[in-house]
Amino acid sequence: xxxxxxxxxxxxxxxxxxxxxxxxxxxxxxxxxxxxxxxxxxxxxxxxxxxxxxxxxxxxxxxxxxxxxxxxxxxxxxxxxxxxxxxxxxxxxxxxxxxxxxxxxxxxxx
Length: 110
Description:
By secondary structure, the chain is of the alpha/beta class. The protein has three domains: 1-45, no CATH class; 51-76; 77-110, no CATH class. It contains five helices and four strands; from the N terminus they run αβαβααβαβ. It has helices at residues 2-11, 33-39, 50-54, 56-71, 88-96, and strands spanning 17-20, 42-45, 79-84, 103-107. The strands form two sheets. Strands 1-2 form a two-stranded parallel ribbon. Helix 2 links the parallel strand 1 (17-20) and strand 2. The chain is extended, with a radius of gyration of 18 Å. The two termini are 35 Å apart.
């Protein structure tokens, strides 16, 4: 969302696709449709779980494929920080202050 969406519209290749996943910037982007017309791109909204709710069988297949990729080591999420369970408040603070790049993990064994 926000500035990232605006920049994506400016630099997208002809016949490209922008996936709108969320609005963490706090600003809803506005798309002048003449940009899409001139560059021939499309914008698709992506909401976690929505596809699976509309198409349960395909959603289950997608989840199975993701777990298979994770089992094979093909999915490697970036872990920003790990916190012990006792430091849960600090972990939540990093999220609320938007200091996280990747995933924050709370581990009971730390």
